[in-house]
Known about the structure:
- Helix content is 50%, strand content 11%.
- The protein is built from 13 helices and 8 strands.
- It has helices at residues 3-7, 13-20, 22-29, 44-56, 61-75, 83-98, 126-139, 154-167, 180-194, 211-227, 246-258, 276-284, 305-313; strands at 114-119, 144-147, 171-172, 198-201, 234-240, 262-266, 288-292, 300-302.
- An 8-stranded mixed β-sheet has the order 3-2-4-1-5-6-7-8, sandwiched between helices.
- The longest helix is centred in the C-terminal third of the chain and has 17 residues, at 211-227.
Amino acid sequence: MSESDKSEKRPGLMGRLRNGLRRTRSGLTEGLATLFVGRRELDDELLEELEMRLLSADVGMEATQKVLDGLVSNLGRGQVRSGEAVLEALRDQIAQVLEPVEKPLDVDTRQRPFVILTVGVNGAGKTTTIGKLAARFQQEGRSVMVAAGDTFRAAAVDQLRQWGERVGCPVIAQPTGSDSASVVYDAHQAAMARGTDVLICDTAGRLHTQDNLMEELRKIRRVLGRHDTNAPHETLLVLDGGNGQNALAQAEHFGSAVNVTGVAVTKLDGTARGGVLLALAERFRVPVRYIGVGEGVEDLRTFRARDFAEALTAE
């Protein structure tokens, strides 16, 4: 277990996770116990209410059906039940949907530098996620370098430089409008020369419908492959949890273009649609590495299915 993973077990962090998911939790479970007033069985009316709540949280039809089927299988029909029993069963079913994608990022120390290529659309929180990852790795005692490959936005470069100064890691950048692949190439050379443990490469925020920009991502991957045929070792797709079902379209397009190997879902603290994690898990089965539930470095959390399910259904 990494130092960052250990730190996430500290008292108070589970509370922050629950607080971060409160908007999604409110729509999903608030008043659930009252639905059992005058009702003595898990009937079609209650299942329809649960279905509506799950879909409203952007859990998606496939994952919703799986959760409901699991509830019926676990609880049975026509039996006397309480709201607490349904809530406990709901928590278990949510965790079962998510557990197959609970695969924390494993930085292979045999690969130096271990290259993480981050991709995602504008506004998803990609640059901030890179800064928080750099801070996490530094806290674990790893040396980090960042490639400011978003050469279309000067603000992105400035933001990464601020993170670099904050955590003490170098940021390789070129003037606005430079070739992104050239920045990444230079950074990879520098990281190899310095024996850097982790190289995190930013890229411009792509609209997933723009084929020319997707081709640029493929070019970056080819350039990295000139130094190391295994690089990038992780292609991390950053998704805004508030985008709901649109995140599924992004995952599909980026996945087909650049072979996404992991996902980070951000901004879950500001949305009632955090159930999209279940939709992503059920449809794509791509590992969820991190979730963002706040502004602090510690609020970019290693994804744990049971913790997420408990926070989502906490009373």
